[in-house]
Amino acid sequence: MDKEQEFLSGLADAEESEVQFRLAESATISTLCDVVENAADFAKNMRDKVLDPRTPPIACRAKCDHCCYQSVSVTAPEALRIAEYLTRRKLNLVQRFIFKLSTLNKKIEGKTPEQRGALNLPCAFLDKGKCQIYKVRPLLCQKHTSLSLQECIAAKPHGFPPGSITEEKAQLATYTAIISGYRSGLLKSLPKSFHGSYELTKAVLVALETEEAATLWTSGQDVFEDCEIKLIEST
Length: 235
Ligand code: SF4
Known about the structure:
Helix content: 40-55%
Largest sheet: 2 strands, antiparallel
Oligomer: single chain
Strand order of the largest sheet: 1-4
Pfam families: CxxCxxCC
Structural class: mainly alpha
Bound molecules: iron/sulfur cluster
Protein name: Putative zinc-or iron-chelating domain-containing protein
């Protein structure tokens, strides 16, 4: 293992241990939100530490939203955290997002990422080019960067297939390692409740519409069982 791999493996291990430590005593909505927030902060800090100043500038800019027209995979704590964030704001905001999520979900449910990309439909949280849940956006949204606007424009109708975008190397490597450690920590801490990768739209809709979704999920009830992201077309 070379030094870079060793460093990234250390990041994943550190994040996995942190998740296990934080969830060892209780897995309440508050601890779940903390776990996700901590993973996001850790990834950002480590990215800042290893960023090479000679790296080419990323092309991502405010109100550039090409990547917000695709499938986004989330874990259950991320979906619960977004629902919690919206619920803590105004009731009419929750109702507005339930309507937007439900409308979008009817159009994209059962689609593969490629099929969803081809529909050219914006994320339910996108408004006038801005993410309405920016503070609590999914870890994969935080990880994403691009060095080329042209590549984003070309990849958008195809759902951003793997390898279609040249991403900023330090961000890609640190976020990938820490998200992997985060997911592994969840798996080891909450084996009965962790069921994989969920489609953002449906998972947040379920989290908002299900009464006590967080309590049910942490007690082992699979409230997200129909939200798995579909990766291949059924034959
Ligand atoms: S959650 Fe926010 S950043 Fe992620 S796809 Fe939706 S609008 Fe874009």
